[in-house]
Amino acid sequence: MRRDSDCVWDPPPTGWLKFNVAGVVLEEVAGYGEVLRDEKRVVSTIFCGKCGVCGVEQAVVMAIKVATYFFIDLMQKVNVPLIVEFELSSISNWLKYRRLRPWSVRKLFLDTEGGLHHLVEMKFVVTNSQKNGMANSLANAGLSKNQFFKAYW
Any alpha helices (H) in the chain, and if so which ranges? Predict the structure, then answer.
């Protein structure tokens, strides 16, 4: 039996920001979506895009890469810690243990890790699909976009 708390998005700790990222695959085309929120649940950034032909894991890794670089650009003068939340435990294992990474995503991880040293603190968290709903919706929207979509305020 599922508890209501399993279906509700959890805010980050005070002073942190949280990116929820998701990837989807439909008919061999992958899309990704991302949402950046603060501890008050205020959305400040959304974006989505299409990865072309790849698996859902690659789409999530691409989303993490885009989120990392976008966050670095957004927070150039402010040191704010970041949580990146996603649904796939395989990605968590790839982040912890480089030897488990498939060859198909190693370049993406190298690109992502290149930006991580600019962040004051970063945590990766695995969540469930109910808590990642907005990012999943954006990932589905990314499938139909011909160009990368980004909105921030």
Answer: 56-74, 89-96, 103-116, 133-143
Q: With H, G, I as helix, E, B as strand and everything else as coil, classify residue 129.
A: coil
Per-residue pLDDT of the chain (153 residues), as tens digits, is: 555 566 688 899 999 999 999 999 988 889 999 999 999 999 999 999 888 767 888 888 888 888 888 887 877 667 788 899 999 888 888 888 888 888 877 777 777 776 666 677 888 889 887 888 888 889 888 888 778 777 877
Are 46 and 93 in contact, with CB atoms under 8 Å apart?
no
Please report, for residues 10, 16, 55, 112, the alpha-carbon distance to residue 119 in angstroms, rounded to integers and kept in the order given: 22, 12, 28, 12
**CA–CA distances in Å: residue 51 to residues 18, 66, 117, 129:** 22, 11, 25, 20
Helices and strands: H and E segment counts in the chain: 4, 6
Nearest alpha-carbon partner for 135 in 49, 6, 16: 49
Domain 17-152: CATH superfamily, name plus number: Ribonuclease H-like superfamily/Ribonuclease H (3.30.420.10)
What are the boundaries of each domain within the chain? 17-152
